[in-house]
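testing teh design pipeline on a random one, pls ignore if ur not involved
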């Protein structure tokens, strides 16, 4: 059992060698040994494919070697191995590989790792691809805020109303009211990474144009006609990252 290594050395060790060198002799050896300890059993039973592990090791290497040598913090290798372990069942998706590789590299970077928490890798391991993508979309939107609008129908005095359509997220590149995005955002709210406000909205000219354009588009829709006793209204709001979400997302993008 001591010699158990079902992944060919020439494959994994070649991919891991630049990372090991970047971390120094002791820490690099620990990282390589930990990587084998975590993944060799999964490779043996074909739970993880050889190419997945090689691709993953290369992604980690690329991000770690991008860190200037004076900022590499090899003292965090033990914490990083927890992140490697948390990633072991998520490597079938290229984007999740990339997110974990960035998380690992940032945890080894003195410029960023003071804000790193070991629980970040656990959060990422339980996150779907849709959640991760939606989180990145929110982060990439101007000021990491996304205006939202929900078309409603109300009676003339406004005392009673109901939604006519799902909540629509007015991302800069497109409007999105898909069920997939709504579920992803609900899950991100549950994780404490995102906040949804429907009792407040964005008032800067940049964002008011987004609200106004959406309302104009919806009112012109052939499906916009309703009973003469009712009127169409819009419930405005905003999606933003929490402080926790802002810290977390910087480690994976």
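output:
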């Amino acid at each position: 059992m001591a010699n158990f290594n079902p992944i060919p050395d020439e494959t994994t060790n070649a991919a891991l060698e630049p990372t090991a060198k970047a971390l120094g002799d002791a820490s690099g050896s620990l990282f390589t040994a930990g990587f084998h300890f975590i993944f060799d059993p999964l490779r043996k039973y074909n739970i993880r494919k050889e190419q997945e592990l090689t691709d993953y090791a290369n992604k980690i290497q690329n991000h770690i070697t991008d860190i200037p040598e004076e900022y590499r913090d090899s003292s965090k290798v033990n914490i990083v191995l927890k992140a490697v372990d948390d990633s072991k069942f998520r490597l079938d998706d290229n984007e999740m590989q990339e997110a974990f590789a960035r998380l690992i590299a940032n945890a080894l970077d003195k410029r960023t790792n003071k804000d790193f928490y070991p629980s970040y890798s656990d959060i990422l391991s339980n996150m779907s691809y849709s959640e991760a993508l939606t989180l990145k979309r929110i982060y990439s939107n101007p000021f990491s805020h996304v205006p939202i609008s929900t078309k409603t129908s109300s009676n003339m005095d406004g005392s009673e109303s109901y939604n006519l359509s799902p909540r629509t997220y007015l991302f800069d590149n497109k409007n999105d009211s898909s069920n997939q995005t709504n579920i992803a955002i609900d899950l991100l709210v549950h994780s404490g990474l995102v906040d949804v406000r429907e009792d407040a909205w964005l008032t800067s000219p940049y964002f008011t144009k987004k609200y106004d354009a959406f309302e104009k588009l919806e009112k012109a829709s052939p499906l916009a006609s309703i009973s003469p006793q009712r009127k169409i209204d819009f419930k405005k709001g905003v999606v933003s990252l929490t402080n926790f979400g802002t810290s977390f997302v910087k480690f994976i993008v």
